[in-house]
Amino acid sequence: MKRRFDFSVDLLGKALLIVMLAVLIGCQSDTAANKVSLEAEPTVTTAVSATELPPTPLPDPTPEQELITSVEEMAGIWLGTVAGERGYVMYTEDGRYTVALIEDDLGTAPRVSGEYWFEDGTIHLRDLENAGHWTVCPAEIVGIYEAVVLEDGNVQFQTVEDGCKEGGFTRNYIFANMTQECIGDPVPIAEAEVEAKSESNPELAAALQAIIDQAVADGSPGAVLMVDAPDMNFTGREPQAWRPQTKAWL
After folding, report:
1. What is the mean pLDDT of residues 117-135?
2. 146 with 130: CB under 8 angstroms?
3. How far apart are CA 75 and CA 156, in angstroms?
4. What is the pTM of this model?
């Protein structure tokens, strides 16, 4: 009986040992399988084509400057401001410009006057007369500028080329630093009287001419008239020869 019990126990122990071995083998197999599975599983890398990338935003384009490029656009009376100081510039439709400290003087007594025109989108300035508003600029030196229209509608010149830039208060300093605001239409420019009116006082002119004629007839070597009459012209016969006997010119 005891041997049979020992034999049963022995069989039970062997069975348990077999079960435990089977379990251990199964666990090792699962671990190895998992390891193989992990090692065998490739890393998937998703390639993104260049066409799928979002475009890089471009900077906003710099807006082109608006320019005045014709006499028709420039013609007018403009209020100019430089460092808080104000003056006036008038551009006429026939290509002339005048500068004055008082608006009413633009057509009658400008400080500077000249001519202007446009070439290749730029305004050209040439001084013709200068009463001392800025450093005198010879007529052969032409200032070239871009007439840029600002956001508020005013205009500011940007220098392209101007040789009148030395001497402090110059044409280039004025126009390159002046903001111009159009305030009205151009007015006529009073033309300077070139020829004197010799017949403004015909009676006096005749009397003085008679004195000159008589002096010449009397053989006088000359005559000097101290007359405040700059608008009168007088003529006299120029003596041809000196006669010592009569002490007179022929």
Report:
1. 95
2. no
3. 15
4. 0.56
